[in-house]
Amino acid sequence: MKKVAWRFVSVLLVLVVSFGFATSLVSVKVAPRTPLRAWLVNNFDVAGTFTDHLEILVKDSDLDILKKAGISYKTIVDDVESRLSARMVRGYRTYEEMVAALKKLAKDHPEITKLEVIGKSAEGREIYAIKISDNPNVDEDEPSALIMGLHHAREWIAAEVPMRFAEYLVNNYGKDKKVTELVNGREIWVVPIVNPDGYVYSMTKYTMWRKTRRHIKDNYYGVDPNRNYGYQWGSVGTSDWPGSDTYHGPHAFSEPETQAIRDFAKREHFWCSVSFHSYGELNLYPYGYAYKAYAPDNDLLKELAEGMAKFNGHKPEKSSDLYPAMGDSDDWLYHDCHTLSFTLELGRRFIPDQSQIDEISQKNIKALLWLVDVIKEKYQHIANTTEPEEHDNPNAGNYWPWRHYVKKADFVREF
Ligand code: 0X9
Ligand code: ZN
Question: Looking at the CA of 159, which ligand is closest?
Answer without folding.
Answer: 2
